[in-house]
Specification:
By secondary structure, the chain is an alpha+beta fold. It contains 15 helices and eleven strands. The chain has helices at residues 70-77, 89-96, 136-140, 146-149, 258-287, 293-313, 321-335, 341-352, 357-391, 395-408, 420-436, 447-466, 475-492, 498-517, 533-538, and strands at 11-15, 21-31, 42-48, 54-57, 65-67, 154-165, 169-172, 197-199, 205-208, 219-227, 238-248. The chain has a five-stranded antiparallel beta sheet with strand order 4-3-2-1-5. Strands 6-11-10 form a three-stranded mixed beta sheet, with no helix packed on it. Strands 7-9-8 form a three-stranded antiparallel beta sheet, with no helix packed on it. α6 runs antiparallel to α7 (321-335), α8 (341-352) runs antiparallel to α9 and α10 runs antiparallel to α11. The N and C termini lie far apart (61 Å).
């Protein structure tokens, strides 16, 4: 028997191609079918959860089969990250949560140009500082879990309105027991509501249920809205309002042209498929080095604009599937340093609002990567903040923020690839230490000297492993390494270090300026956003009419 990653009985996620990832349990190793050649064997046979369909996994690779994570299990066990777990997984989930949580959540009246990107400060577990700015991903995604990470109380209200028929009036108002009656239009799941039903900021539903050509003759509605108005009130917190009902009699009226409707949907679906095909082609050309970064971004952004325009005209096409693609492909251009992580999160989060299980799994799979990108962005912008503190000679504050920055993603950042954060801390330590230890006689006895040397070694290893630099290495790393050795020699020979400190400090000003100016070998400045966050939010289709 071959050595495989997973034992029989392991719960895994399997890639079923266009059907997405499905949860299952491994029931056998070395599966084969009678008509296969003798040498062919599949590593696993899997029984899918729910209907126990039997499948096989062709290769023992994460591309085909991966171990189910806690987030996977939660996604399949509840509608969103603010809902309670409905299975025995709840206790397992609680035991793995952070036991002590501290956050810096705050909502102020100050005007920040990056209102929806305050996660770049690295606070609040890389959630935006103010819950009133949280959108669908931060509220609902299992990979963001902003309320849970920041220990914000969740008050849940579930309402079941029973059955309602097409043509009937639906009215629901929050009763007098509700502590808060505003703020519910922050990020509601409006695509789940039937046509004709409007939802208000005060949490009320009203209207006449109309025929919905996108749904079956009867269907369930699980509508969710959240108010963060009282997020800082420990007795209330976030209010998650879930309104359930079943719509009956969703039959097409006599004046509805089903064929014409389907033709429009088919045409729109074909157009969306063609755009996604073009996006894939452009990305393939970049991967094969037939396109440079700038041209790749320009072409893909143009196609993504076309897809967004199409979806604004056909917002409910295929239950949010294409909104998921719109968000997912923005990640490609983000990898090329385009400032589009907000678009990724906005459209993937909006896809969650549709409630389609397959769409939700696809969106969550991509949001997992988005949250990791948040960590990388935070590391980069925290590094910048530390660099600015160094220019102000705030060495201790700079050291602390560098430590927090490289803890985000093991020293990596968004386009910060050469150990720069470790190196920056080493420099701050060296200047602060040299200023404090003017009478030192042995560098090896100095704690800051030892730590700075270790940090420089880490940076050297990371830079060398990148293969970008020649024999002389990363210029700032090389210079700092030589400065460490010079300092050691000076105090070993009993010589004054004042001139060394002045020269090293002056060079630090130079290098810090290079960092903030985006000069190689440091990452270029983040590109200006193509559209403001508020504009993109406002342009999401108004499905509340």
């Amino acid at each position: 028997m071959s050595e495989y990653r997973f034992k029989v009985g392991t719960t895994v996620m399997c890639n079923l191609g266009q059907q997405g990832w499905k949860l299952g349990r491994i029931i056998a190793h070395n599966y084969r079918e009678d008509n296969w050649p003798k040498e062919d064997v599949a590593p696993y046979q899997v029984a899918l959860e729910g209907d126990y369909t039997l499948i096989y996994v062709p290769q023992d690779s994460d591309n085909f089969c991966r171990k189910a994570t806690e987030e996977d299990m939660n996604i399949l066990s509840r509608n969103d990250a603010l809902a309670e777990l409905k299975t025995d997984l709840e206790q397992e989930n609680k035991s793995s949560q952070i036991s002590v949580k501290e956050s810096n959540l705050c909502c102020t009246n100050d005007s920040f140009p990056l209102q929806y990107q305050s996660y770049r400060r690295g606070r609040c577990f890389c959630c935006n500082d103010c819950p009133k700015n949280w959108l669908h991903a931060e509220l609902y995604s299992e990979h963001y879990r902003c309320a849970d990470r920041n220990n914000v109380k969740i008050t849940r209200h579930e309402v079941n309105l029973g059955d309602v028929k097409v043509g009937e009036q639906l009215d629901y108002k929050l009763d007098d027991s509700f502590p808060i009656k505003d703020g519910f239009l922050q990020a509601p799941t409006l695509p789940r509501l039937p046509p004709g039903i409007e939802f208000s900021d005060s949490g009320n539903l009203s209207g006449i249920v109309q025929f919905d050509p996108y749904r079956d003759s009867s269907y369930d509605v699980d509508f969710v809205a959240v108010s963060t108005t009282a997020w800082n009130d420990d007795s209330i917190g976030l209010i998650r309002l879930e309104i359930r009902f079943k719509v009956e009699g969703n039959e097409s009226p006599n004046d509805f042209d089903a064929d014409a409707f389907e033709q429009v949907q088919t045409k729109a679906r074909s157009a969306a498929s063609k755009i996604v095909q073009d996006l894939n082609q452009t990305w393939s050309e970049w991967e094969s080095r037939r396109l440079i970064n700038r041209a790749t971004c320009d072409i893909m952004l143009e196609d993504l604009g076309r897809l967004r325009d199409l979806l604004e005209s056909h917002p409910r096409l295929d239950n949010g599937k294409w909104w998921g693609h719109l968000g997912g492909y923005h990640m490609n251009v983000h990898k090329l340093l385009e400032n589009t992580l907000f678009e990724c999160e906005l459209y993937l989060g909006y896809a969650l609002a549709f409630g389609d299980n397959d769409v939700r799994l696809y969106a969550e799979q991509n949001l997992k990567g988005c949250y990791q990108k948040r960590l990388l962005e935070a590391a980069r912008f925290m590094w910048y903040e530390g660099i600015e503190l160094m220019l102000q000679k705030e060495w201790h504050a700079a050291i602390e923020i560098f430590k927090a920055a490289y803890d985000k993603k093991e020293g990596w950042g968004w386009a910060v690839n050469y150990g720069d954060i470790w190196l920056s801390e080493a420099v701050a330590l060296m200047i602060d230490g040299a200023e404090s230890d003017l009478t030192a006689t042995n560098a090896n006895d100095l704690e800051w000297f030892r730590v700075a040397g270790e940090l420089v070694e880490r940076a050297q290893f990371r830079a060398k492993k990148s293969g970008v630099f020649g024999s002389e290495g990363h210029p700032w790393i090389s210079e700092v390494s030589h400065s460490l050795e010079s300092y050691k020699n000076l105090i070993s020979n009993g010589k004054d270090t004042t001139q060394w400190l002045e020269g090293f400090s002056n060079r630090t000003v130079y290098w810090c300026s290079q960092v903030l100016a985006g000069i190689f070998p440091f990452p270029p400045k983040a590109r200006t956003r193509l559209a403001s966050e508020s504009t993109l939010i406002e342009n999401l289709p108004n499905l509340n009419q």
